């Protein structure tokens, strides 16, 4: 009897290591697929939950009148035949957005009759579409654990921006995320067109432009990049054509004015700076130099690390263009020569935009939508522990919900931004390119 028990015990001990060995041999691809399946399963009820939440906000929270009447007034002037941008104004001042804004809000006015409640339903639907696109991007890159996707649904301020304020920032943000999702499939031309459409709604999207340009040069040669950028520029010309042929100077100076000075009272990030300094040209130039410097440093040390630095990456793109020029015709321009990893694309775009946010002279409350949806991604790209990541996320949200902002809230927000930026700097850079063999296997599948 004792011998039987001892033999059973030996067999049970033998089973454990064998089972563990089998588990250890599970292909990484299967584990990644299982993780993504869990994330997809979790994302679906998240969308339903947020859709219900948006419906409740529209039904029970009073609408806040800010820019809607001004938008409708500007659109009405445009529809009545006004083409001089210097004459198109609303309750909040002159029209300062490119022509795409007028077309989109003309369509919204036609659909809603200019009424607020139908517009809220429309913007509520836009919020869910945008959230679905963002969840898709997060699942494709697989940077966050599945449970952290819920952070994307927890912003009181962003819900307010979409369904209680009806800002054009919401439309520009959604188009930007759609462009980014397109880039994950290496569709650079289409991504540039959608990106240009987002710029035509609001100029803040250009904060992503330096990162996008670098990605284009890494994925294509210089000639292909130029042609792709030409397509994006053509979109702007076509949209602005009625204004460019009638009053070009008024359109360009108003719609693409990069030198506007915002009111100090509404600043969320630099309220602690004295107003005379805040509105000074020296402060603006200092922030611009800091912005360009940080972009250059991140591009050289982080985004082009595996190419040997920014200058070597640009030189490689130039050599690729020169060597291929006699062999390729114009039909081949813009074709993808290298396949970039999805994570590298999203990281470069989100970090580049975040650098612009950190260095922005003034962030108004609606500007939170410019980068909120990237905050969880950025936090999980840092080497910080999970509790610190969550604390930083909560801190950002709390600062954006202080109204009106004060010296303490804006100072804390800037400190949190700098901590996140430091975390992104010390994080190891990922390898940017997809292995050609694995890429070929994926295409066969």
From TrEMBL:
Among the Pfam families in the record, one is ALG3
| Bilayer disposition of the protein | Multi-pass membrane protein
Q: Name one GO cellular component term.
A: endoplasmic reticulum membrane
Biological or metabolic pathway of the protein: Protein modification; protein glycosylation
Q: Which domain of life is it from?
A: Eukaryota
Q: Which of UniProt's keywords are assigned here?
A: Endoplasmic reticulum, Glycosyltransferase, Membrane, Transferase, Transmembrane, Transmembrane helix
Q: Where in the cell?
A: Endoplasmic reticulum membrane
Q: Does the keyword Transmembrane helix apply?
A: yes
Signal sequence span is: none
Q: What is its EC number?
A: 2.4.1.258
Which reactions does this protein catalyse?
an alpha-D-Man-(1->2)-alpha-D-Man-(1->2)-alpha-D-Man-(1->3)-[alpha-D-Man-(1->6)]-beta-D-Man-(1->4)-beta-D-GlcNAc-(1->4)-alpha-D-GlcNAc-diphospho-di-trans,poly-cis-dolichol + a di-trans,poly-cis-dolichyl beta-D-mannosyl phosphate = an alpha-D-Man-(1->2)-alpha-D-Man-(1->2)-alpha-D-Man-(1->3)-[alpha-D-Man-(1->3)-alpha-D-Man-(1->6)]-beta-D-Man-(1->4)-beta-D-GlcNAc-(1->4)-alpha-D-GlcNAc-diphospho-di-trans,poly-cis-dolichol + a di-trans,poly-cis-dolichyl phosphate + H(+)
* GO molecular-function term, one example from the UniProt record: dol-P-Man:Man(5)GlcNAc(2)-PP-Dol alpha-1,3-mannosyltransferase activity
- Top enzyme category: transferase
Q: Where are the membrane-spanning stretches?
A: 38-63, 121-139, 160-182, 188-217, 224-245, 282-301, 345-364, 410-427
| Keyword GTP-binding (UniProt) | no
Q: Where is this region: Disordered?
A: 1-20
What's the protein name?
dolichyl-P-Man:Man5GlcNAc2-PP-dolichol alpha-1,3-mannosyltransferase
| Source species | Chenopodium quinoa
Query: What is the primary gene name for this protein?
Result: LOC110720342
């Amino acid at each position: 009897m004792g011998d039987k028990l001892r033999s059973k015990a030996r067999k049970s001990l033998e089973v454990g290591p064998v089972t563990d060995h089998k588990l250890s041999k599970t292909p990484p691809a299967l584990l990644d697929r299982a993780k993504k399946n869990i994330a997809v399963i979790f994302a679906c009820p998240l969308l339903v939950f947020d859709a219900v939440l948006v419906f409740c906000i529209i039904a029970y929270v009073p609408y806040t009148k800010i820019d809607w009447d001004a938008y409708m007034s500007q659109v009405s002037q445009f529809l009545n035949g006004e083409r001089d941008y210097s004459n198109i104004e609303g309750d909040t001042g002159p029209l300062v957005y490119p022509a795409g804004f007028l077309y989109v809000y003309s369509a919204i006015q036609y659909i809603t009759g200019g009424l607020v409640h139908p517009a809220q339903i429309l913007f509520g639907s836009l919020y869910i579409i945008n959230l679905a696109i963002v969840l898709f991007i997060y699942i494709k890159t697989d940077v966050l654990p599945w449970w952290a996707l819920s952070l994307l649904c927890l912003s009181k301020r962003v819900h307010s921006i979409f369904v209680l304020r009806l800002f054009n920032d919401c439309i520009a943000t959604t188009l930007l995320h759609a462009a980014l999702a397109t880039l994950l499939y290496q569709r650079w031309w289409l991504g540039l067109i959608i990106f240009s459409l987002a710029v035509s709604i609001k100029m803040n999207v250009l904060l992503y432009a330096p990162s996008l340009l670098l990605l284009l040069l890494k994925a294509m040669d210089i000639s292909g990049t130029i042609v792709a950028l030409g397509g994006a520029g053509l979109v702007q010309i076509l949209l602005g054509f009625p204004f460019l042929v009638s009053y070009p100077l008024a359109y360009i100076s108003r719609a693409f004015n990069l030198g506007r000075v915002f009111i100090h009272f509404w600043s969320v990030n630099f309220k602690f700076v004295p107003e005379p300094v805040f509105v000074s040209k020296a402060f603006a130039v200092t922030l611009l130099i800091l912005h360009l410097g940080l972009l250059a440093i991140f591009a050289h040390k982080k985004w082009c690390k595996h190419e040997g630095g920014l200058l070597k990456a640009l030189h490689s793109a130039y050599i690729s263009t020169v060597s291929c020029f006699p062999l390729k015709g114009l039909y081949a321009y813009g074709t993808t020569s290298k396949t970039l990893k999805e994570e590298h694309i999203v990281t470069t775009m989100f970090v580049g935009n975040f650098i612009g946010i950190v260095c922005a002279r003034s962030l108004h409350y609606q500007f939170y939508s410019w980068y909120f949806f990237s905050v969880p991604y950025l936090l999980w790209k840092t080497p910080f522990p999970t509790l610190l990541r969550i604390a930083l996320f909560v801190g950002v949200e709390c600062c954006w919900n202080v109204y009106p902002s004060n010296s303490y809230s804006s100072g804390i927000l800037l400190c949190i931004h700098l901590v996140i930026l430091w975390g992104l700097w010390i994080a190891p850079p990922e390898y940017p390119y997809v292995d050609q063999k694995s890429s070929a296997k994926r295409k066969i599948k």
